[in-house]
Design a protein that fits this description.
heterodimer, A: alpha+beta, PmbA/TldD fold, 2 domains, eight-stranded mixed sheet, five-stranded mixed β-barrel, globular, B: alpha+beta, 22% helix
C-alpha cells in the first residue's frame, strides 16, 4: 500500500500540491439480525480504496478512487490538485497548518476474540436464542436482535513523511422487545437502544453482555410499561442512567465543542455552536463537580473514539473540555488549532472511509466519574424520576435547547426506587442543565458507551464516538414536555 | 463512468462463476457512483471533494437459505471469493420456509433522468457559482455557507433466472445558508438537471430572508397557526413513509395498525407513491427487480393501500408493488417516492389569509417521540416569522415542537401546489406548502 500512497503523493506534488496526505483503507463488515425468530439481515461486505487530500494554491482538494493501480492513484492525485486549484477561485486566504512531526508506526486495537473467526452459527444461535427468550413473554409483539462487526485497516501517508498503519476491530450487539397494546407502542432495549453497545473490542464484548440473562427482563418491561403511570409534567429532579447520560454528553457537549462548527463550517448542515471563541476559559459550563475530557488514548478505554493516530497523522491525546465546571477546550485539527491559541492540533480528524474527507469529530467525550455509589445516590434523593435508555433525542442547531425521552422511568420517593413510569422525557438549555448536576456516580457504575451512528459533514459521514458516563442527578429540570398537549 | 454493457459483463461473470458452486440461484447488483461536492463557509470554499466507486453485491440461494456479500473488487478471484462468502453466510442459518424463488424476466417502464449537462459539471463550474453567491453575501454584509454538488449513479441488476434491469440518473444540488449577525436563513434545490435551479436566485432568497430574520423576538410557546414552506412539510411528513410498509403493519410498529380504511386524516390529504412522477428521481424497479407500481396510499384522508415486497404480498394475498428492499432484510419494503396531492393556494395567499400565525422556513433534528400517535419533536431553524393581519411583521426566536403528524394532517386549512422539496431530515418528495391550525410548540430556545 505504501507504494501506491507514495505514488499518489508524488503525483500531487508534481502537479503543484504544497501538502498531500493519503488514506488507503480496507473495511470489512458483517451484519447479522433476527426478527421474530427469523434471520433478517445476513450480509458481509468489504471495501478498499484510496483518498488523497491536497493543498494547492493555498486551498484544499480531495479525490478518491477504488482503482488501486499506479495509473488509478496517479489520476486521483492529479484530480485532487485540479479540484484544489478550483477551490482557490473562491478562497479568502491561504490554509495554514499547525506543525506536526512525521511518524512511522503500526498499531492494532487490542482484542481477545476476532469476531470474523467466530463461527457464524455460534453468532446466529445466540441471537436466535435471545430472540426466542423475548418472544416467550406475553405481550411482546416484535423481537429484534443484531450484531455488527467491523475490521478496518488504514494506511496513512503524508508528504511530511508519516507512514502509519492502524487496524481496528469494532463489535456491536443489542436486543429489543416491542409491545403493541391498546393503541400504544412501547419498546425496551438492552444494553442500549438503536443497536445496543458498540466498542473497539472483539467478540468478547458480545459474550460480556449476557444477552440471554437480560432478554426476559426487557421483554417483561416492554409489556409492563403499558400499564405504568404516565410520567408527570413538572419541574423537578431527574436521575439519568449511564447510557442516556452518554447521549446527553454527545449532543450537548460533544457537538458544541467541535471547532469546525464553532467557526461556521457546518452552518449549512449540522449547524453552529453557542460556544463562540470568547467563551473559552470563561464560561461556567457546568457545576464544579463536572469534569469532561476528550480522550482518544487507549488508556481511556476501548471506545469508538479510541485510536493511536487521527486521520491527519496526529497522535491520540487527552484534552480537558470541562474542568471543575469551567469550559477549557475545543476539538481542533491542524488547520484550526491556531485559532484557539494552540500550537498543535488536538488530534480529532476522522474519516468514515477512504472516499470521505477527514473532518473534526468527537473521539471519546467522557464525563469523569464522581464519588457516589448508585444506591447512596438513590437513598439521598427525596423526589425524582429515574430515566433509562434513550427513546428520542433532539437539540437545536446551536446546541442550546434539547429534549430527550427514554424508554422507561421510575419514581424515586423518600430515597427508594418506586413505581414504573411510562413515556418519560426531560428538556432544557444546555448550560442550565449541566450547572444543575449535583451528584455523579463513581467508576464502578461508569461505562464507555459507543454511539455508532453520528452523522456529520457533506457528503454525510457516519462515525462512531465514545462517551464514558455513570448515573448522575440533575435538579430543577423540566420533565414531561414531550408528551404534554398544552 | 461505465455503460450498461460493462456492468452486464460483471453480472454475467458472477452468474457464470456461481454455476460451479452449490448455489441454486444467484442475484447480482452492480452500482457505480461518481460524484463531486463543493462546500463553502465564511464566504469561501473550504472543502471540495470527488469520489468514484463501484460495488458488486451478490446474493446466493442454496438449500432454502440466502445471504448477501458485497465487494468493490471486480477481478475474477475477488468475485469468486465474494460468492463463496455469500454461500458461507447462507449455510450458517436454518432454512427459511418463507424464502421465494428469484423472480424471472420483467418489463420496465422507461424513465430518462440522465442529463448530460449535469454529468459534465466541472469543479470550476461549481466554484464560479459559489464565488458569485459568496460575493453577494459580502455585498450584503452577510456570511454564506453551503454546498454545490453534482454526480451520476448507475445501478444494474441481474439474476440466474434471466432478470436484467438497469437505471442511471444524474443529480445536482445547491444549498445555501446566509447569516447576518445572529440571524440566518436558507434555500435549497435538488434535481436531475442542474439547469432546473439557479444558485444566484436561491442565494438572493436566502439573503433577503436572513435580513428579515434579524432582531428576532421571543414569543411564548403554545398552539399556533403555522404556514409550513415545502421543505418544512417534507421533513415532517417524510417520517410517515415506513408506516405504509406491509412489513411494518405485520410487525405492529406502524401508526396505521388498526387504522386502515378509516378517516384518519383530513379530506384534503391524498398521498401516492409514484416513481414515474416528473418531479421524482429513482429506479423503476425494486431490490428484487420487480417493477415499481404507482400506489394510492391515502385517498382523501383515508389510508387505502400499503406497499408490498414479494414475500409480504404473498402472505397478504396481494400483488407485489415493486417496493421491496434488496434481500435479505427484516424491513421488507417502503414507498420511497411519495407524492402529495397539492392545492391551489400560494404562500402569499396563506400569509394574507392569516390573522396571527407563524411562517416556518425549515425544521431541524426531527425525531419520533410516540410511534403510534406519530408525535414528532424538533426545532424550527433558519427563519421563523410572525404573521399578523395578513402580513409578515417580525422575526421570532426558534421553537421546539411536539406535534402529532396525524393531528397535523387533520388540521390542514390550505395547500399549495405540490413541488419537489428537499430538506435534511427526509429524502426528496413532492409535497405542497401547508397552512395548519393548532400546531404545538412546547419550548423556546435562545436565538
Amino acid at each position: 500500500m505504501w507504494d501506491l500512497s507514495t505514488h499518489a503523493i508524488d503525483t500531487a506534488q508534481l502537479r503543484g500540491a504544497s501538502y498531500a496526505d493519503v488514506r488507503v483503507m480496507h473495511i470489512r463488515q458483517r451484519d447479522l439480525t433476527t426478527k421474530n425468530g427469523q434471520v433478517g439481515t445476513l450480509a458481509q461486505s468489504e471495501s478498499i480504496g484510496l483518498g488523497i487530500r491536497v493543498l494547492a494554491n493555498g486551498a484544499w482538494g480531495f479525490a478518491s478512487t477504488d482503482r488501486l493501480t499506479r495509473e488509478g492513484v496517479a489520476a486521483c492525485g492529479a484530480q485532487a490538485v485540479s479540484i484544489a486549484k478550483a477551490s482557490a477561485l473562491a478562497k479568502r486566504g491561504d490554509v495554514v497548518l499547525a506543525a506536526e512531526d512525521a511518524y512511522i508506526d503500526s498499531w492494532q486495537s487490542p482484542f481477545r476474540k476476532d469476531p470474523f473467526e467466530i463461527p457464524l452459527e455460534t453468532q446466529l444461535d445466540l441471537l436466535l436464542a435471545a430472540d426466542a427468550a423475548m418472544r416467550k413473554i406475553k405481550g411482546v409483539t416484535l423481537s429484534e436482535t443484531g450484531m455488527q462487526f467491523r475490521k478496518i485497516d488504514s494506511w496513512f501517508a503524508s508528504s511530511i513523511g508519516s507512514r502509519i498503519h492502524q487496524r481496528k476491530i469494532i463489535s456491536g450487539c443489542g436486543i429489543a422487545a416491542t409491545s403493541f397494546q391498546d393503541e400504544e407502542i412501547q419498546k425496551r432495549s438492552y444494553p442500549n437502544s438503536f443497536g445496543g453497545q458498540y466498542a473497539l473490542q472483539g467478540y468478547e464484548l458480545v459474550e460480556s453482555l449476557e444477552l440471554l440473562k437480560h432478554a426476559p427482563r426487557i421483554a417483561e418491561e416492554a409489556a409492563a410499561v403499558h400499564s405504568a403511570a404516565q410520567c408527570p409534567e413538572k419541574t423537578g429532579t431527574v436521575v439519568l442512567g449511564a447510557s442516556q447520560l452518554g447521549l446527553q454528553i454527545h449532543e450537548s457537549i460533544g457537538h458544541p465543542i467541535e471547532l469546525d462548527r464553532v467557526l461556521g463550517q457546518e452552518a449549512n448542515f449540522a449547524g453552529t455552536s453557542f460556544l463562540t471563541l470568547d467563551k473559552l476559559n470563561k464560561l461556567r459550563y457546568a457545576s464544579d463537580i463536572v469534569n469532561v475530557v476528550a480522550d482518544a488514548r487507549l488508556d481511556h478505554g476501548p471506545g469508538l473514539g479510541t485510536f493511536a493516530y487521527d486521520d491527519e497523522g496526529v497522535p491520540a491525546q487527552c484534552t480537558d473540555i470541562i474542568k471543575d465546571g469551567q469550559f477549557r477546550g475545543y476539538l481542533s485539527n491542524r488547520e484550526t488549532a491556531h485559532l484557539v491559541g494552540l500550537q498543535r492540533s488536538s488530534g480529532t480528524m476522522r474519516t468514515e472511509s477512504w472516499n470521505r474527507l477527514p473532518i473534526i469529530r468527537m473521539t471519546n467525550i467522557s464525563l469523569l466519574p464522581g464519588n457516589w455509589s448508585f444506591d447512596d445516590l438513590i437513598a439521598d434523593t427525596d423526589d425524582a424520576i429515574l430515566m433509562e435508555t434513550n427513546r428520542s433525542w433532539s437539540i437545536d442547531d446551536r446546541r442550546y435547547q434539547f429534549q430527550f425521552s427514554t424508554e422507561i422511568g421510575w419514581e424515586i420517593k423518600g430515597g427508594k426506587k418506586g413505581r414504573m413510569l411510562k413515556n418519560p422525557s426531560y428538556s432544557g438549555i444546555t448550560t442550565d442543565f449541566w450547572n444543575s448536576c449535583d451528584a455523579i456516580c463513581k467508576f464502578d457504575e461508569w461505562t464507555l458507551w459507543g454511539t455508532p451512528n453520528c452523522g456529520k459533514g457533506q457528503p454525510m459521514q457516519t462515525m462512531g464516538t465514545g462517551h464514558g458516563a455513570s448515573p448522575a442527578r440533575f435538579r430543577n429540570v423540566r420533565i414531561g414536555a414531550a408528551f404534554s398537549n398544552q | 463512468m461505465s455503460d450498461f454493457s460493462a456492468h452486464r459483463r460483471i453480472i454475467d461473470t458472477v452468474l457464470r462463476l456461481a454455476k460451479s458452486t452449490v448455489a441454486d440461484e444467484t442475484e447480482v447488483h452492480v452500482e457505480e457512483i461518481s460524484g463531486a461536492l463543493t462546500r463553502f463557509a465564511n464566504n469561501a470554499i473550504h472543502q471540495n471533494v470527488a469520489e468514484h466507486g463501484l460495488t458488486v453485491s451478490i446474493r446466493t440461494v442454496a438449500d432454502g437459505r440466502t445471504a448477501r456479500a458485497t465487494t468493490n473488487r471486480i477481478d475474477q478471484d475477488s468475485l469468486r471469493a465474494t460468492i463463496e462468502t455469500s454461500l458461507t453466510l447462507a449455510r450458517s442459518q436454518p432454512k427459511n420456509p418463507r424464502l421465494l424463488p428469484l423472480p424471472g424476466r420483467q418489463r420496465y417502464r422507461r424513465v430518462n433522468r440522465f442529463i448530460k449537462r449535469t454529468a459534465e459539471l466541472t469543479p470550476e463550474d461549481r466554484a464560479r457559482a459559489v464565488r458569485r453567491t459568496c460575493d453577494l453575501a459580502v455585498k450584503n454584509g452577510q456570511v454564506a455557507a453551503g454546498i454545490f454538488s453534482s454526480g451520476q449513479n448507475q445501478m444494474v441488476m441481474g439474476n440466474s433466472r434471466g432478470l436484467f434491469a438497469g437505471y442511471r440518473e444524474t443529480h445536482a444540488e445547491f444549498s445555501i445558508t446566509m447569516q447576518e449577525g445572529a440571524a440566518a436563513s436558507w434555500a435549497k434545490a435538488n434535481s436531475a438537471n442542474v439547469r432546473d435551479f439557479d444558485p444566484p436566485k436561491l442565494a438572493a432568497r436566502a439573503s433577503e430572508k436572513a435580513h428579515l430574520a434579524c432582531n428576532a423576538r421571543e414569543l411564548a410557546p403554545g398552539r399556533y397557526t403555522v404556514i409550513l414552506e415545502p421543505a418544512a412539510v417534507l421533513d415532517l411528513v417524510g417520517f410517515l413513509f415506513y408506516d405504509f410498509s406491509a412489513t411494518a403493519l405485520e410487525d405492529k410498529r406502524s401508526c396505521l395498525n388498526d387504522r386502515m380504511d378509516t378517516q384518519l386524516l383530513g379530506k384534503n390529504i391524498s398521498i401516492s407513491d409514484n416513481v414515474y412522477h416528473p418531479l421524482q428521481l429513482g429506479a423503476p424497479f425494486d431490490g428484487e427487480g420487480i417493477p415499481r407500481q404507482r400506489v394510492l396510499l391515502v385517498d382523501r384522508g383515508v389510508p387505502k393501500n400499503l406497499v408490498y415486497a414479494r414475500s409480504t404480498a404473498k402472505r397478504a394475498g396481494k400483488k407485489p408493488t415493486g417496493h421491496g428492499f434488496a434481500l435479505p432484510t427484516e424491513y421488507g419494503e417502503a414507498p420511497m417516492n411519495l407524492v402529495f396531492s397539492g392545492g391551489e393556494s400560494s404562500l402569499e395567499k396563506m400569509i394574507a389569509s392569516t390573522d396571527r400565525g407563524l411562517l416556518v422556513t425549515r425544521l431541524w433534528y426531527i425525531r419520533e417521540v410516540d410511534p403510534y400517535e406519530k408525535v414528532m419533536t424538533g426545532m424550527t431553524r433558519d427563519g421563523l416569522f410572525l404573521v399578523e393581519n395578513g402580513r409578515v411583521t417580525s422575526a421570532i426566536r426558534n421553537f421546539r415542537f411536539n406535534q402529532s403528524l396525524i393531528e397535523m394532517l387533520r388540521n390542514v386549512e390550505l395547500l399549495g401546489p405540490a413541488v419537489r422539496a428537499t430538506g435534511e431530515e427526509a429524502f426528496e418528495m413532492v409535497v405542497p406548502a401547508m397552512k395548519v391550525r393548532n400546531f404545538h410548540f412546547s419550548e423556546v430556545t435562545k436565538f
